[in-house]
Amino acid sequence: MINVLNSLLLVLPELILGIFALGLLFFGVFQGDKSLRIVSYGTIIALVLATLSIFVESSTQTIAFRFETLILNDYYTELVQFLILFVALTVFWASFSHLSQNNLGRFEYPILFLLATLGMLLMVSANDCLLFFGGLELQSLSIYVMVALERERAFVSEAAIKYFILGTLSTILILYGFCFVYGYTGTTDFNGIEVALSAYKIAPLPIILAMVLIVSGLAFKVSAAPFHMWTPDVYEGSPTCVVLFLSSAPKIASMTFLVRLLFGVFGQFMETWQPLIMALAVITMILGVLAAVFQNNIKRLLAYSTISHVGFMLVGIAATSIGGVQSVIVYLTLYAVMVIGTFTCLLNLRHHGQMPETIDDLRGLSKTNKPLALALAILMFSLAGIPPLAGFFAKFLVFIAAINTGQYALVIVGILCSLIAASYYLRVIKVMYFEAPSGNGNVGIIYDRPLSQIAIWVIGSVVVINLLFFTVPEPLMWYANRAAVTLFTTE
Amino acid sequence: MSVLSVGLNHYLILSMLLFVIGTSGVIIGRKNVIMVMMALELMLLSTNIAFIAFSSFLNDLVGQIFSLFSLMVAAAEAAIGLAIVVVYFRNRQTINLADISSMRG
Q1: pLDDT above 80 (res B67)
Q2: Which chain B residues are closer than 8 Å to A165 by Cβ?
Q3: Where does the pLDDT of residue A32 fall: very low under 50, low under 70, confident under 90, or very high at 90 and above?
Q4: In three state form, how does the secondary structure of chain A look?
Q5: Which A positions 177-206 lie with beta carbon below 8 A of chain B?
Q6: What distance in Å separates residue B10's CA from the closest CA in chain A?
Q7: In chain A, which residues have their Cβ closer than 8 Å to the Cβ of B37?
Q8: CB contact A7 to B (< 8 Å)
Q9: Cβ pair A272, A318 in contact under 8 A
Q10: Which terminal Cβ of chain A has fewer Cβ within 10 Å, N or C?
Q11: Which residues pair with B96 in a beta bridge?
Q12: Domain locations along chain A
């Protein structure tokens, strides 16, 4: 009995999210769309409780397997789960007052949000191919529906079709990879696979094939080139609330799982997968940066900027060291913060219900809405990686980790790419600050709607984090280091 | 293994063939979305064949459980995919893949 309770205690966040999701669904079905407000508050309560419950479970044990070996809890999963829940909470808090303006005012939205978060938590804590696959599917199926939820717009359903087809394709690639791993090692348990593979000095052919399949499937999920085609279309087509979510939390889940898989399960074949990751990193950085230069649509620009940032994170993985993993975790956290800030700014820019589509729509924003323009400018500087801002430290750590392990070529490509990247971030700032609100004869769009209380809080704290991260980087660095060390000692 | 008896390799080759057919269906299938979804189903089922073949070869039940699990997921996926296609058809009155390209760049 104690054992069962102990097991349940370790999946407390997942349990809370699951119970709340089902309960709120039950409530929503009977009450209809007018229950949106209550369901939203319920979602926030569930996310807060789940975040708090991580501290409860962390006080019990350092490393623990529960439900046979299905679930793993260590410093790494704990930190990542906390990040995911925190990001999800912030995203939901920032966006739920915008749901009805975006024709998303249906009670299903918060419930799908909860289920997707639950899927991500399972992806992170899974210690078995089967459970990981379940979490991945829960996450992606919920997000397909969230993307398609705004049914009346053709763009939205087009984005949903593209996302669905390519997302399913990537899931199947991962599944086929697992299939080969299972066939070769006879088990689906990650520790079992690691033990079975420890007999080999060089990676056997089926395992190489499996690695290629799984890595390319996950590359789809984190939108690394050449598997990035869905990203710009989905970002452009889907509602900004959804993009805010799908550009932050799922990226953390997939990227951290990729790290765990490569360093944990396939840890001893480092020489085999390192060239693969290096190639992905180089292609992703170059393609993301070069394509972004020619974008006029602001969401497409941010999509390509996501792709290039993913490339920088892959440099951290390719460093194959504790410092590299630490830098990836720090990068993911700071990137999520920046992206939440940027999309919350976009979400709050409105003119007669219209959101800005192209970069030119932001013309002269500094005159019509000073605080938002300032916030957006700081975030753009941070994304570009201008020194004392947070974005600079993220890149700095990644490059230092790569230099320490001798990956000079990767670092040179990375620095060149971030130089080019600065040009398109600065273009946004130039348009906001140095162009008149009305040009070319058409009436300038004036985004002078005052910010809501929530938006001020979210954007304000994001900007403060970006500005002041360099004064207190230690806590995040320390936690990321502890997580990274866990990953290397369990080998 | 005699030529006539069917072994693990035959199942794996069958599964791989189906997988390749499915992949090429997704990549070069330009007719309509339903065809692409059928190709995706084919890929999923090809992994199931491999899973079950491995499971029987290894005398281990996990593979069969995995294939049941992925069948269930495939059903959910097909439901969501078809729902999205219905929504798209209502907006555009077509499900031709060549028309699904209004976003470029």
Answers
A1: yes
A2: 26, 33, 36-37, 40, 81
A3: confident
A4: CHHHHHHHHHCHHHHHHHHHHHHHHHHHHHHHHHHHHHHHHHHHHHHHHHHHHHHHHHCCCCCEEECCCCEEECHHHHHHHHHHHHHHHHHHHHHHHHCHHHCCCCCHHHHHHHHHHHHHHHHHHECEHHHHHHHHHHHHHHHHHHHHCCCCCHHHHHHHHHHHHHHHHHHHHHHHHHHHHHHHHCCCEHHHHHHHHCCCCCCCHHHHHHHHHHHHHHHHHCCCCCCCCHHHHHHHHCCHHHHHHHCCHHHHHHHHHHHHHHHHHCHHHHHHHHHHHHHHHHHHHHHHHHHHHCCCEHHHHHHHHHHHHHHHHHHHHHCCCHHHHHHHHHHHHHHHHHHHHHHHHHHHCCECCECCCEHHHHCCHHHHCHHHHHHHHHHHHHHHCCCCCHHHHHHHHHHHHHHHCCCHHHHHHHHHHHHHHHHHHHHHHHHHHHCCCCCCCCCCCCCCCCCCHHHHHHHHHHHHHHHHCCCCCHHHHHHHHHHHHHHHHCC
A5: 178-180, 182-183, 186-188
A6: 14
A7: 165
A8: no
A9: no
A10: N
A11: B32
A12: 2-487
Count of C-beta atoms within a 10 Å radius of residue B32:
16
Closest Cα in chain B, distance from residue A15 (Å): 21
Answer yes or no: is pLDDT of A176 > 90.
Answer: yes
Q: What is the dihedral of CA B62, B66, B67, B68, to 10 degrees?
A: 100
The single-letter DSSP state of residue B32 is B
With beta carbons under 8 A apart, name residues in chain A contacting B94.
none
Give per-residue pLDDT as tens, A92-102.
998 888 887 76
Q: State residue A25's pLDDT score.
A: 94
Query: Which amino acid type is present at position A449?
Result: R
Pairing of strands A71-73, A64-66: antiparallel
Tokens (6 digits) for A356: 């800005």
Distance CA A174, CA A283 (A): 21
Q: Specify whether the CB–CB gap between A414 and A282 falls below 8 A.
A: no
Put simply, whether A65 touches B (Cβ < 8 Å) is no
Distance (Å, whole) CA A308 – CA A339: 13
Scan for tokens 């040179």, then name that residue.
Answer: A412
Place A68 in a pLDDT band, splitting at 50, 70 and 90. low
Average pLDDT over residues A71-100: 89
Helix (H) or strand (E) holding B77: helix B62-92
Mean pLDDT for A419-445 is: 78
Q: Report the residue of A115, A137, A179 to disrupt the B interface, i.e. the one with the largest count of B CBs within 10 Å.
A: A179
For residue A275, whether the previous peptide bond is cis, meaning omega lies within 30 degrees of 0, is: no
- Please state the ipTM of this predicted complex: 0.94
Q: Which of A375-379, A406-410, A485-489, B26-30 has the lowest mean pLDDT?
A: B26-30
- Residue A311, pLDDT > 90, answer yes
Model confidence pTM above 0.90: yes
Handedness of CA A190, A191, A197, A202 (dihedral sign): positive
Q: For A50-59, A390-399, A404-413, which range has the lowest pLDDT when averaged over its residues?
A: A50-59
Q: Do B85 and A236 touch (CB under 8 A)?
A: no
